[in-house]
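ingest -> validate -> predict -> emit
validate: passed (alphabet ok, no gaps, 673 aa)
predict: started
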Amino acid sequence: MKKVFFSLLMTLFLNACGGGGGDGGNSSPGTGPNNGGATPAAAALTFTPTTITQTLTGGVSSKISLAATVNKPSDFNGATTVYAYFIDDVGVLLPNTQISQNSTTQYSVALYTSPTLSAGSHQGNLTVKLCRDSNCTSQFPGSPMLLPYSFQVNPPANLPTFGANPSVALTTDMYVGAAAPDPVTITIAGQGRTWTAKTDATWLKLSSTAGAGNAILTLSYAPASLQVGVYTSTIQVTSSDGQSVGLPVTLTIKPPAYKLLAAETGVALTATPAWSRLTRTLQINDSSGHGASWGASSDQTWLSATKSGNNLTLTANPASLAPDVISYATVTLSSADPSVTAPEPIKVALWKGSTTPTLATQIKQAYTNVIADPIRPLIYTHNSGSSIDVYNVYTSQKTATFTTLGTTLGNMTISPNGDKLYALDLATSRLVAIDLATPSKISKWDLSAALTTDVRMKAIRSNGVEIIITNFGTAYLASNGKFISNTGIVGRIDLAVTADGKKVYAQDEGFSPSRTWAYSVDYSELNGGYVAVSLLTQPTGVIGIANGVAMSNGADIAVSADGSRVYTANGAPYRCGSLSPVNLGFISALPGGDTFPNNVKVASDGRVFCGISGGYSSSDVWMHGADGTLIRSFKFAGSARNLIDRQMAVSGDGLMLVGITNDPLLAIVPVGP
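emit:
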């Protein structure tokens, strides 16, 4: 029996209707199609009050509350659906009856009177039907029933002025194919009235087209089918007392927007008495490939910017700069082409040192993570605690400590142009972002994912937009930490990214044989921002050296800035490998190395550094030219000690090398030009 009433509750609640036609006041209680002329059945429901008596104000819709009790539950045994209709032949009600359950036999009913009732007395009957089907061809016993009403409507009060006001001007623009403008809220001042809202434009969508009283509408733009041009329409909001407000809307669709993209947006330059790096050449392209004209200018007199074809050469003259400080410049790209949007600036930093470092420095601290700044002569390192220490690689001095960042810090990454440093707080599952221009400005974003020491992330530039990708398959906008899409890049893998952010390479960590992947990455502003990631090669287990030994125990992966060379460090075979960036096939083994490679890095000048976990080797880091030739080797760790996996870094200018060992110590080694 209880099950029947639960079903009755649900169907009453879901299918109740108000208004409409029907036999209304012509029916008698307890008679109808089911009764066949027999003795009338008792009414199916008892209403409290039995007669609705209400004093109303003209122009205002009022709520009427009453209770309904099921008189004979057994009449509904076996019913799978019950349709309840409140039929009003003369229009005293609005069509939004609500029914809810209080107990297995008790229901609450809410009726709403029409605000258009004229002043005076209104009496009659509502007809209540309980039907077995939506067309009411068959009714339950005791249906239909009459519900008498008596309404006294007083003249309307002085109502506030009717109005409709958007939250922002309804004039906006966008580039064709880009994300739609943000939705706009429209506040309806409709007290005491009903109202309708409509527009004849298919590219405009209203969250509601009718309502009563004060309300808020949402206007959304749907421009997907629109071409370049200016589109206008009007949203007409009309009240039940004849007032109307027209809201004009203008949407301008502009031609496609192109971006000027520099191959790199961060440049590190250095001047010391013995060696320096004072020039860099970058390639400039536009995102469409249609060859937009462009120019470049520097905001500092010590840095010149010279264009030659698609190349931009930056040249520094440090003569006027103070020694032992970091000097900054910004290079701005520009174009006379109106379809080219404001490009990213290129950030440049120059260290003018009064001395040239010649000896390695060992700082006896137990650090666990290190990363180099792409433009400044700085490194950032921590011990998995709550703070990050900052060192100048040319002076080996600690210059700052960033505190209160979290509880248990993990993997770090940094903006390609040196704007922000990011660190994972494993204890709170947050991404911590530090503004490196103003380190006191710290943002913390919840990632809604459990974080461990196996989590890796990279800050990349895709189509001129900085995003953070992780190895648990997610991508976030670096500007605000907003999740934008899943990427499919998932696993216990390390990540390497080209400078233009178009390619991501991955190698699993600690597995035998090792596998590598290659992905293309493309950020689009459509639909509020989306990262399209495509797998370029199926997971590949590569052969490491000529004797056919498969690479195993993956530890690190690196790619050159231009994406022309990919390198891996694996526990076996005992050399870092060079792979094809196209299919990840093995090309060659770097000549310098020994047992258990666990670090590989590519410097901004193209040189490649391979580090090992070799406690008894005479060297544990080997430097190679961009062509793979061995240049020299270095020793970082003490006897029976070794470099920590993936904890080697190269300064932005490519002249200083840093590594963490389990001695424990932080080693800073000058490698020079």
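Residues 52 and 149 are 4 Å apart (CA to CA).
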